[in-house]
Amino acid sequence: MKNYDNVVIFDHPLIRHKIAILRDEKTSTKEFRELVEEITTLMTYECLKDAPTVEKEVKTPLETCTQHVVKDNSVVIVPILRAGLGMVNGIHVLFPSARVGHIGMYRNEETLEPQTYYCKLPDGIQEKLVLVVDPMLATGGSACDAIAHLKSIGCKNIKFLGIIGAPEGVSRLAETHPDVNIYVSTLDRCLNERGYILPGLGDAGDRLFGTK
Ligand code: PRP
Ligand code: URA
Fold it and tell me: Would 2 be classed as within a structural domain?
């Protein structure tokens, strides 16, 4: 895959370790859910290094000093349903005041085109840093469409966080939305003929929610 200025692929042993367990078909739903949250928290630490901050006076037992604290309610998390829901708590751990908007999409199994079935976003999202989250970036269709919708309503500061990316999806998202920073924990080999990521982890929604 080409190098893109707007793409960060994490190459960290602690994340690689967790992803290895996540991929394992024997990993339970409970452990899968916990790992998705933990990996998301590790990614958020890097991805929010330019998080909006404000100055605050803090009185220590010795004196008063000026500190920088994260700006309340300055971030909106937008999970792409269903699987994106599994990443929300992983961000809330570090940024509890983040609001949550939901975009419901499923892929048509024949065409692999995303179909939107639900959208509910917080008022004032246009002024916030918007984190679109979905563990799987396969063809990139769902992420591209979700971000196009957010831009169409006026969002200007958008980042995408995914756990596993296929080269096809990462390239498509990076080229369609060059102004969006994309964070992916790991880059896999390719897609199979059904649009599944290889080696991947299977269907992320089913593994998170135990539906199969
Ligand atoms: C999965 C995944 C992404 C999408 C990725 O959702 O969570 O949203 O596929 O594929 P793409 O990059 O080719 O668009 P799915 O359609 O399986 O819905 P689900 O989360 O409800 O299971
Ligand atoms: N969606 C998934 O859940 N897994 C894939 O491998 C591709 C799309």
Answer: no
